[in-house]
UniProtKB/TrEMBL annotation:
Family: Belongs to the trans-sulfuration enzymes family.
Record-linked Gene3D superfamilies: Aspartate Aminotransferase, domain 1 (3.90.1150.10), Type I PLP-dependent aspartate aminotransferase-like (Major domain) (3.40.640.10)
Protein's UniProt keywords contain Transferase: yes
A GO cellular component annotation in the UniProt record: cytoplasm
Native source organism of the sequence: Zinderia insecticola (strain CARI)
Residue numbers of N6-(pyridoxal phosphate)lysine PTMs: K205
Protein name as annotated: Putative O-acetylhomoserine sulfhydrylase
Record carries keyword Calcium: no
Length: 410
């Protein structure tokens, strides 16, 4: 299996030991699972025997998806959650105590920023830094620092942290390195390559790909020595030490907070992920083509896309990622009526979300950054006319023609 290509790995039947030779794992809607013998039931509850007991904690369809994500991320174990945000919140619920310190990139998905503000008020300390310069990580480490958290390509301005250097720093200081891989997806980038210890994915985005199910995942790459993490409870130390962290998160977050993925959503995501390589190749090609078209247009002030030579981290992206991603943003020159431009477009959908088969377009400042002050937006590089595009898999010439023609109607 090691030498197989990415799609073959995902589809390979050895991973698919499914009842009756079925090619798809059935959707197990059962909440509970019965046993014939009392002893057996007790052994399942004591984790002495493999088995299912209650679907909040473990369900056969969801477990099947967890194993697939582990294959996609080359990890040792994955936990799925009802949303990507639940997977990120699990870090706090499962691993952190009062006064613990996190160093986080300040270029983050908006709701993750909200979550960090939320947990600050519950007693954790957070340093938000410009992680495109690794020195800002180094400068902020103290003896309470438990976690470094970064994204691969940040949304909407597409900054990329020095992922490899940060991995080396975390290893040296035994700090848990967590990467949110959502914008790249496991097909374009495997964070284990840069020594990430936990990998977050919003399954809602490019993995599911069809915009029909919410989901999230957290994968342990097996690279962290959990003996160095002081917040592991004694009861989780009965497992192999590789698994202390993930077992504790499964109990303290998934079991206790209960943001479990449904079997129906797990099924949709399992079908979606089978075609990730095709969808991503096409969507990245569309993004690359559109970025190159827009950068030469007289109405456009700036295009943000890691595949452009003038992108500050173009070299890092080229070295680390299989492709430059399906997300780009651009700014109009002053005096352009961008409402009119957006209304002129026929193919893109005016909608939030990312990584869908359909191209989605969103004016950022007045939608998802609507509650943030003008000054703060300026600080973050979010101008009034910043437009985010998540490219879909539509035919490239149709997309390019549509974006081009909409200029002519201004
Ligand atoms: C969408 C997104 C999330 C949250 O995922 P949901 O499934 O919407 O909860 C987290 N991180 C990134 C980078 C995202 O784009």
């Amino acid at each position: 299996m090691k030498n197989f290509g990415y799609t073959t790995k995902i589809l390979y039947k050895k991973n698919n030991k499914i009842e009756y030779g079925s090619l798809h794992k059935p959707i197990y809607t059962s909440v509970t699972f019965r046993y014939k013998k009392t002893k057996e039931l007790i052994n399942v509850f004591k984790n002495k025997k493999e088995g299912f007991r209650y679907s909040r904690q473990k369900n056969p369809t969801v477990s099947f998806l967890e194993d697939k994500i582990s294959i996609m991320e080359n990890g040792i174990e994955t936990i799925c959650f009802s949303t990507g945000m639940a997977a990120i919140a699990a870090i706090y619920q499962g691993l952190l105590n009062i006064n613990d310190h996190i160093i986080s990139s300040k270029f983050l998905f908006g709701n993750t920023t909200n979550l960090w503000n939320n947990i600050k008020s519950k007693g954790c300390k957070i340093s938000m830094v410009d992680s495109t310069n690794y020195k800002n990580i180094l400068k902020n480490i103290n003896n309470k620092t438990k976690i470094v958290f970064v994204e691969t390509i940040s949304n909407p301005i597409t900054q990329i942290s020095d992922l490899k250097k940060i991995g080396k720093i975390c290893k040296k200081y035994n700090i848990l390195y967590i990467i949110d891989n959502t914008i790249t997806s496991p097909y374009l980038f495997n964070p284990k390559k840069v020594n990430a210890n936990l990998i977050i994915n919003s399954l809602t985005k490019s993995i599911g790909g069809h915009g029909d199910s919410l989901g999230g995942s957290l994968t342990d790459t097996g690279l962290y020595n959990w003996k160095n993490f002081s917040n592991i409870d004694k009861k989780f130390k009965k497992y192999n030490e590789n698994l202390w962290g993930i077992k504790q998160i499964r109990a303290k977050s998934l079991r206790d907070f209960g943001a479990s993925l449904s079997a129906e959503s797990a099924h949709n995501i399992l079908i979606g992920l089978e075609t990730i390589t095709f969808r991503q190749n096409k969507a990245c090609f569309n993004a690359f083509s559109l970025a190159n078209m827009l950068k030469n247009n007289k109405n456009i002030k700036k295009v943000y896309y890691p595949g452009l030579k003038n992108h500050p981290q173009n070299k890092i992206a080229k070295k680390l990622f299989k492709n430059y991603g399906n997300l780009l943003s651009f700014e109009f020159k002053k005096n352009i009526n961008y409402y009119k431009y957006l209304d002129n477009l026929k193919i893109p959908n005016l909608a939030t979300n990312l990584g869908d088969n359909r191209t989605l377009i969103l004016p950022i400042a007045k939608t998802i950054y609507n509650e943030i002050s003008k000054k703060k937006k300026k600080n973050m590089g979010i101008s009034e006319s910043l437009i985010r595009v998540s490219l879909g898999i539509e035919d490239t010439h149709d997309i390019l023609n549509d974006f081009y023609n909409a200029f002519n109607k201004l």
